[in-house]
Specification:
The chain has about 425 residues and is an alpha/beta fold. It has two domains: about 220 residues, 3-Deoxy-D-manno-octulosonic-acid transferase, N-terminal domain (Rossmann fold, 3-Layer(aba) Sandwich); about 180 residues, Rossmann fold (3-Layer(aba) Sandwich). Helix content is about 45%, strand content about 15%. The protein has 18 helices and 14 strands. Helix 2 packs across helix 3. It is globular. The protein starts with a helix and ends in a 5-residue tail after the last helix.
Length: about 425
C-alpha cells in the first residue's frame, strides 16, 4: 500500500471518529470523554523527561504493570506516559497505578488517530525519550515521525499470528518500512520473531511473554475467599472468564443440566446489560455481583460478574474456568491470569492469539483444550465431578507460571541501551 493511500484512509478514520465515539458512548459514556486527545491535543502537566508506554486496552495494560514498575525504579527522574486506545484500558491503568497517577509520576492519555498532523502534535507535546509499544500496535505515521525526531520506538512482548502476518504482508513496503524503523522488536516466541523478521523487522530478539511476570494483587486471595463465602463453599463454581459476543448462549446451554454455579464475567462492561437480558430471557435465577451481599440460595444458577477490577478475585473464588474468546473465532483471552491463580481452565478451539502459551499450558496440565465447541458440556461435567483432577491441574498451573517468569528483566536490559538519560 502506498503511504499516501494509508494517509487518506487515516484521514477518513479521523473524520468518522466522532460518529464511532458517539455510538460507543451510548453504551459506555467514557467514550465521550477526552476527545481532543484523539486528535493530538493535550493538557497533561509534564515535569520531567518522559518514557512513553502504549498499551491499547485492558490486557496490555495489566501486562505492562511489572514493566512500568521496573521503569520507575530504574529511572526515578523520569515520568511515565501511558497511552491507551480504549476507556477500559485507561480505567485499568487508573486501578493498578492509582497512587502513581495521583502524584503525577504516571500520566495517562489516548494515543491519537494516526494522521501525520495528530502524530506530530502528540510527539511535539510529550517529546518522549523513548516509545515502548506493547504487543502489536503498528501506527506507521507515528513510527515514521518518531524516527525523524530521533526518538527510538520499540515493540515489546510482540506477538503476531499467522493470520495477522498475512494481513500486514498485504501492505507491502508500508509494513516493512515501519518495522525496519523500530529500534527494537522483542518478540514473545521464536515463531513471532520469525514472522516479524519476514515482514521486515530488524533488531529482533525473543523475550518471552510479559504477562507471566504480572503478580496478582496481594489481597486477591483474601477477596476471593470472601466472595466464595457468598457463593457458597459447598457449591462447585465454574467461571466463564472474559466472554465475548455469541459465547454466553453456548456456555448456558452447556451447563443447563449441570449442578455448577456459573460465575459469568463478560469481557466488556458495555455488554453487562445485554448479558443480563439474555439471562432474563432464559428465565434463569441469577444475581448481579454488585448486588451480592449475603450467601446465595442454592436455587441461584448464575452470578453475573458486572464489576470492574475483580478478575483475580473471581478466579480465586472459582474451582475451574472456561476461557472466553475461544468458543468463537476470536483468538481467545489471557489464560495466564487463570494459571497464576491456580485455576484449571477449559480452552475452546480458537486460541490463535495465544497459540504457543496454549500448547505449553496444555502440555503442562494447566489447561485442557477442546477440538470442537460441541465438547463443552462434556468437559464441564468431567471437570466438575473430578476434584482430584482439579487439584492436580491447579498445582500444575501455578508451577507453569513460575517457570516462565523473567521477561521484565530481559526487556529492561534491552531498553537500557536505548534510553538517553
Amino acid at each position: 500500500m502506498p503511504r499516501f493511500i494509508y494517509t487518506l484512509l487515516m484521514t477518513l478514520v479521523a473524520l468518522l471518529l466522532p460518529i464511532k465515539l458517539l455510538w460507543r458512548g451510548l453504551k459506555q459514556p467514557e467514550y465521550r470523554q477526552h476527545w481532543a486527545e484523539r486528535y493530538g491535543f493535550y493538557a497533561q502537566k509534564i515535569n520531567a523527561p518522559l518514557i512513553w508506554v502504549h498499551c491499547v486496552s485492558v490486557g496490555e495494560t495489566r501486562a505492562t504493570q511489572p514493566l512500568i514498575q521496573a521503569l520507575m525504579d530504574a529511572y526515578p527522574l523520569h515520568q511515565i506516559l501511558m497511552t491507551h486506545g480504549t476507556p477500559t484500558g485507561r480505567e485499568t491503568g487508573q486501578q493498578i497505578l492509582r497512587d502513581d497517577i495521583a502524584n503525577g509520576r504516571v500520566l495517562q492519555a489516548y494515543l491519537p488517530v494516526d494522521t501525520p498532523g495528530a502524530a506530530k502534535r502528540f510527539l511535539n507535546y510529550f517529546n518522549p525519550v523513548i516509545g515502548l509499544i506493547m504487543e502489536t500496535e503498528l501506527w506507521f505515521h507515528l513510527i515514521d515521525q518518531a524516527t525523524q525526531k530521533q526518538i527510538p520506538v520499540a515493540l515489546l512482548s510482540a506477538r503476531l499470528s499467522e493470520k495477522s502476518a498475512r494481513g500486514y504482508a498485504k501492505l507491502g513496503t508500508l509494513t516493512s518500512d515501519g518495522l525496519h524503523q523500530l529500534a527494537l522488536v522483542a518478540a514473545q516466541t521464536e515463531a513471532d520473531a520469525q514472522r516479524l523478521q519476514a515482514l521486515g523487522a530488524s533488531n529482533v530478539m525473543v523475550c518471552g511473554n510479559l504477562k507471566f511476570d504480572v503478580t496478582p494483587p496481594v489481597d486477591s486471595f483474601a477477596k476471593g475467599l470472601a466472595l466464595r463465602e457468598l457463593l457458597g463453599k459447598d457449591r462447585t463454581v465454574l467461571m466463564a472468564a472474559s466472554t465475548r459476543e455469541g459465547e454466553e448462549p453456548l456456555i448456558l446451554d452447556a451447563v443447563k443440566n449441570s449442578n455448577v454455579l456459573l460465575l459469568l464475567v463478560p469481557r466488556h462492561p458495555q455488554r453487562f446489560a445485554e448479558v443480563e437480558t439474555l439471562l432474563k430471557a432464559r428465565n434463569l435465577r441469577y444475581v448481579l455481583r454488585t448486588e451480592l451481599a449475603q450467601t446465595l440460595n442454592n436455587d441461584v444458577q448464575v452470578v453475573l460478574g458486572n464489576s470492574m477490577g475483580e478478575m483475580y478475585a473471581y478466579y480465586a473464588a472459582s474451582d475451574f474456568a472456561v476461557m472466553g474468546g475461544s468458543l468463537q473465532p476470536l483468538g481467545g483471552q489471557n489464560l495466564i491470569e487463570a494459571a497464576a491463580m491456580g485455576v484449571p481452565t477449559i480452552l475452546g478451539p480458537n486460541m490463535f492469539n495465544f497459540a504457543q502459551v496454549t500448547r505449553e499450558a496444555v502440555a503442562a496440565n494447566a489447561a485442557v483444550q477442546m477440538a470442537d465447541v460441541s465438547e463443552l458440556a462434556t468437559q464441564i461435567d468431567a471437570m466438575a465431578r473430578d476434584a482430584e483432577k482439579r487439584k492436580l491441574m491447579s498445582q500444575a498451573a501455578k508451577a507453569f507460571t513460575l517457570q516462565h517468569r523473567g521477561t521484565t528483566q530481559r526487556l529492561m536490559t534491552a531498553i537500557r541501551g536505548l534510553v538517553k538519560t
